[in-house]
Design goal:
The protein is α/β, with parallel strands linked by helices. Helix content is 38%, strand content 19%.
Length: 296
């Protein structure tokens, strides 16, 4: 139980679909190719999913945890006309390097680790772009949970990236997220007995249990000029959703093309819940971007 609580409180994770390295036999809707690429001196491995016809391309960016490539989710996107690169996280699966996370006693939301993971995502976007040859479809990042900090950093590093989609991605600092997650303590009934005012007061006043330089996604997001979509669950107990949407509203007043959608009955796992609605919403949003690009 102590180990479970430590994992829960010291990083955001989402239970992904079953993860295996796919064979690269041709599918009816798309082809798959296993690839390798280098980031910060480390060899990472992943798989490109390439439909016969596609209107956009995305790199999938993990949440926290020892996550390998997201084969089933990538297949779903490819069947819907999106080219995908998904890769094993640094130090996990077939990728080299050292994994950082509470499972091995290290801090996976330290600013240095988040910057390193952002560099990995940037390198992945470069390799996906190369595999699309002369296709002029928009290239973006799609990520989950902890990727809310990683993707803005990665998008700043690569001007080829034209959009980003974040499922349950925090728009608060890493330390603010920890204060909130310590407060909810994994209680799935938290919102039955607490108010938004309770949560805000705790986030503002609680003492930090860990000391490290906080990462604030607001900084990177305020310097980007690409559209972004956030999908939140109203019953999330891992990130403070209302505070995140409030900060997105501030960014929107600055003319940034950011949009969010709240699903009141869902929790943190918006992409992998029983409801297909958030993923379908994201697919339609990306399709609109691809259509707009063709018109220009």
């Amino acid at each position: 139980m102590k180990l479970y609580l430590f994992l829960l409180l010291f990083g955001l994770s989402i239970k992904l679909f079953g993860q295996t390295v796919p064979d690269t036999s041709r599918q009816s809707d798309f082809a798959m190719e296993n690839v390798t690429f280098t980031s910060a001196g480390v060899l990472l491995e992943g798989t490109v999913f390439k439909p016969k016809h596609f209107y956009a391309a995305v790199v999938l960016v993990h949440g926290s945890g020892q996550e390998t490539r997201m084969v089933e989710f990538a297949s779903l996107l490819a069947k819907n006309g999106i080219a995908v690169l998904t890769y094993d996280k640094r130090g996990v699966g077939k990728s080299g390097g050292v994994y950082a996370g509470p499972e091995v006693g290290t801090n996976n939301i330290d600013s240095l680790n988040l910057q390193l993971l952002a560099s990995d995502a940037k390198a992945a976007s470069n390799i996906l772009s190369a595999h699309l040859s002369n296709n002029r479809v928009p290239l973006g990042f799609m990520g989950f949970s902890q990727a809310g900090w990683i993707i803005p950093l990665a998008a700043k590093k690569n001007r080829m990236v034209k959009f980003m989609v974040l499922f349950s991605g925090p728009v608060v600092t890493t330390l603010e997220q920890l204060r909130f997650q310590f407060y909810t303590n994994g209680n799935t009934k938290f919102w039955d007995t607490h108010t938004e005012a309770d949560a805000r007061k705790h986030i503002s006043n609680d003492a930090d249990r860990y000391q490290f330089v906080a990462t604030d996604p607001f900084d990177a997001l305020s310097r980007l000029s690409i559209p972004g979509l956030w999908l939140f669950g109203g019953k999330d107990i891992q990130i403070p959703v209302s505070l995140s949407t409030e900060r997105l509203d501030v960014l929107k007043t600055k003319g940034l093309a950011y949009q969010y959608q709240l699903f009141p009955e869902l929790g943190h796992n918006t992409a992998f819940s029983q409801s297909p609605i958030p993923t379908n919403f994201a697919l339609q949003w990306i399709e609109n971007i691809g259509t707009d690009k063709k018109k220009k």
